[in-house]
Amino acid sequence: MTVYCMDLLHTMASSYRNPCGGSGHEPAHARFVGPGMLTAVVSRDVFASPPVDSILAAIRAVTGPLGCLLIVKVLSLFISSYPGDRLNFGLAAEQAKSEGYKMQMVIVGDDCALPPARGIAGRRGLAGTILVHKVVGAAADAGLSLAAVAAEAKHASEVVGMMGVALSVCTLPGQVTSDRLGPRQMELGLGIHGEPSVAVVELQSVDVVVEHVLKQILSQETQYLPITRGCSVVLLVNGLGATPIMELMITVRKAVPELQLVYGIAVDRVYTGTLMTSLDMAGLSITIMKSDDSILKRLDAPTKALAWPVGSEGNRPPAKFRVPLPPSPSIKDDEIFAPSQELSKQGCILEAAIEASATAIINLKDSLNEWDSKVGDGDCGTTVILEDMKKHYPMDDAARTINEIGATIRRVMGGTSGILYDNLCFPKDVLIVSRGNR
Fold this sequence. Notes:
The protein is of the alpha/beta class. 38% of the residues lie in helices and 13% in strands. It contains 14 helices and ten strands. The strands form two sheets. It has a six-stranded mixed β-sheet with strand order 7-6-5-10-8-9. Strands 2-1-3-4 form a four-stranded parallel β-sheet, with helices on both faces. β8, α6 and β9 (266-273) form a beta-alpha-beta unit. α3 packs antiparallel against α4 (146-158), α12 packs antiparallel against α13 (415-424) and α12 packs across α14. The protein is elongated, with a radius of gyration of 28 Å. The termini are far apart.
């Protein structure tokens, strides 16, 4: 293992009964060990804290002359156990100091689920800890002193906030899974060890979820984060174990414009992936970190930690911008934007027929998808014929209207069925008539 100018040790907190730390969060934390991030991690059984002796053994194994920084994330909701989260590592640190090691410890608590008035035990440390890991690891790799690295870690921990949403309860090995969450319910403000969340609500769309989570993290009433309009942030969307990457990307697609347009906040970096899990839990967490030149420099620094979602040399792929879809070539620009004219009787009849047909197709969506699955695809797509019809279907020209319906189907409907239905709109006689009309 590469030895940094200063060694880092990441440890995990508390016990199963007062849920914290332990295994079950893979790839965190072992796969964040590597040049540019952590030197070692200390783990135990699933959701169980390592004892003081294990922490001391790790400190002795990796600490060099420049010292060791313990990064501890607190995950307890209960006041009776909150001091215990720190005592395990505090005692290990004090014992290491008595043996001559230079030691410092930073507590990470990025949870924004509970308002301060209810946060008796303080904030839990969750996925935002990963960003702190990266900042600290890059600072140590740059050769900074223990005090300087600890200062950067403390600053990073003070400008990061997170909130999670669960669609299922995780399955603890050898235990019966809790049935507290119904099939059409979700949990807001979850921990990552199967403990009850802040609230159980009816299942909502991703747009509603993202709006709620960002509102909670960026609330000016709670003031968890020093982030206001005009600031810049780093966004981390993290899967909790059983969430497809596609769903994380959909969350990003909603979160970025929400931050930019609603809150007036620039998004400097976006990190997406399954980074800190809760075994097989379905759900995700959204983390916001206030960015500045120093933090961006640390996040962009190269690392060979296997789970960090950026190339080993710190290279970031170029941002992808949405490219507007060009209009159908069969319609001229002046026709698309021309003011609507009163339709002829034939056009009105055609319009009513298309609207009735499109409505019938929408009502048959499940059956169409089932039929499509029999030929290997499984999703005909959602029709937008009604939407396109209101924009630019030339209702007084039946042949061209059928042509445009085909263009709509070709654009929005995937699978095997899409191309078959598209072809139905382009029989030879229709094309000949259409050319003749022109």
